[in-house]
Amino acid sequence: MLFSQASLLLALSTVVAAAPYEKRWFGSWGQESGSSVFDSFLEFGKRHSWRGRTTYQGQCNVAAVQMPQAPKPLPPPSEGLTLYHVAVGRGTQNYTCDTSNATAVPVAAGAVASLFNVTCMSADSPTLLSVIPNVALELPTPTANDATSPIYRDISGHHYFTDLTTAFFNLDTNLNTYGAGGFKKVNASDAPATAVKGQHGQGYGAVPWLKLQAKTKDECVFQEVYRINTAGGNPPTSCQGQAAEFEIQYSAEYWFYS
Ligand SMILES: *[C@@H]1O[C@H](CO)[C@@H](O)[C@H](O)[C@H]1NC(C)=O
Ligand SMILES: *[C@@H]1O[C@H](CO)[C@@H](O)[C@H](O)[C@H]1NC(C)=O
Ligand SMILES: *[C@@H]1O[C@H](CO)[C@@H](O)[C@H](O)[C@H]1NC(C)=O
Ligand SMILES: *[C@@H]1O[C@H](CO)[C@@H](O)[C@H](O)[C@H]1NC(C)=O
């Protein structure tokens, strides 16, 4: 295989540096063939088996896959759990501000994201996967109108909050039934200092890496979820100039263990 991950990444960074934002992505998740780097990345990850472990649309061997670690590592998955699914999430972190209080700080008010299946990429091209959230952050948040986009062949499901402390992962779609359940945060660790701060490199920083645990055991096939390789999502440190409710764009990888 002559194609190396390094040359691919170099090609990507050239594209990102060269083109103005509007012209880069055609405002869609790959509706025009050849126009979406993200879509072609997923295709690339599935088709090119330079370590001989992928079959297109097949099962891949995730037994030996190592989850990337935060500078201050999160606790490992509980004993007996194995890697079940890996998805890239793209959406917003929501915040509220008390606009009547001059010294108020933003308060987290949940998140909403679409999840895309990158399980095979975690096995076959982990280096490539680790930068996908940075790429995805530069793409518009997918909407229902994008459901015809090729990227939706790889939809894993949706992430949202059912109340302020319940992160819900719904991986049951028309395409697959990977499971669904409510999760609570059990540990957090700062993103690396090099993490992308926000869209176009501007923003307030990458949300922390997290370990989440099922609120109700046996509700769902997967029991623990990690949010890692985050890009963007942090709020400003103060509410000055902010609306009562606002969104910050983010992307991250979610690793599911069952
Ligand atoms: C988070 O995990 C780290 C590493 O396992 C541990 O040292 C720390 O006490 C944990 N924090 C909480 C709040 O559980
Ligand atoms: C204003 O916000 C600050 C920071 O969150 C808080 O400590 C303070 O109690 C708030 N004041 C009022 C009147 O709510
Ligand atoms: C999607 O996830 C499942 C595991 O949950 C895996 O078997 C399948 O190969 C994945 N597809 C891709 C394109 O990664
Ligand atoms: C926050 O998230 C919800 C989905 O839970 C979304 O419908 C809403 O528009 C978001 N934004 C704001 C500013 O509340």
How would you sum up this structure, described in words?
The chain is an alpha+beta fold. It has one domain (5-257). Helix content is 19%, strand content 32%. It has 5 helices and 8 strands. Residues 46, 59-60, 84-85, 117-120, 154, 178 line the site of one 2-acetamido-2-deoxy-beta-D-glucopyranose.
Secondary structure layout:
Elements: H1 5-18, H2 21-25, H3 37-47, E1 83-96, E2 107-117, H4 119-124, H5 126-137, E3 155-163, E4 166-172, E5 177-189, E6 209-214, E7 224-232, E8 245-257
Antiparallel strand pairs: 1-2, 1-8, 2-3, 3-4, 4-5, 5-6, 6-7, 7-8
Protein name: Malate dehydrogenase
Keywords: Signal
Signal peptide: 1-18
